[in-house]
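step: validate -> pass
step: tokenize input -> pass
step: predict -> running
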Amino acid sequence: METSLREALHSAATRLSGLATARRDAQLLLLRVLGRDRAWLFAHPDGVLSEAQARQFDEWIERRARHEPVQYIVGEQEFYGLKLQVTPDVLIPRPETEHLVEAVLRRFSPGNVVRIVDVGTGSGAIAIALAHALPQAEVTGLDISAAALEIARQNAARCEVNGRIRWLKSNLLAAVRGESFDAIVSNPPYVAEAATLEAQVRLYEPREALFAGPTGLEIYERLIPEAREALHPIRANYGAMGTPALAPGGWLLLEIGHGQRDALRELLVDWGGVEFVADLQGIPRVAIARRRLTKEA
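step: predict -> pass
step: emit ->
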């Protein structure tokens, strides 16, 4: 018996009724099965699914009913206008992280020859977006997960910037010790271990990309001092190169979690120009600091 698209969508939304995004998710999955856009669906509500399409749609709806994220089901997520592959090996890029990219782009123009490192790159979303927007930049993506780095490489190739990004397996900045950068950016794990997360996040996204430790600040507490280490030799000898850190006057830009602004302000007390960028809901999402240029930095 043939099933119309209208009927298939209604039935799927009913099966997903326990989810707040039931109808939206059902429609998105149906569109991916059909290879069509919303305008086509609205114009053809009485079209029918083929047998193969019906099986695929049923399988996907069953997976979504078990709280698997839509992005993992379809294997893709858009970030800063770029379509990226995502798998359970990487965190799904969020719209909030686009604020971090925008904060970097407000400080550099496309013609600047700058060195940028993305710490904990995951899917490569931040590094790829920056390489795409800053064609003269030298970008490095670091991650402790070899599986994540492979996804990042594939995404960079898909976005035609792979030749301009260096991918290195690294625990924070360890792999670039001795180098210096104009900007260090990171969306690190910042969730406290006791935090309550949505089922689709808790059950499917990589735990190591989410949880930092008991307080949620543990990665910041390691990364911020690592980023600033080169200040010490520069104070003593302005011609010396230090361990991994920012070039003189370089920027540190970090995504932060809800309610972490005051703690980050304390961790950045020895930095200059500390500021925070809020998301569209007014929640501080990005911490920005600049390594001072003076000997007193």
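step: describe -> The longest helix spans residues 51-65.
step: cleanup -> pass
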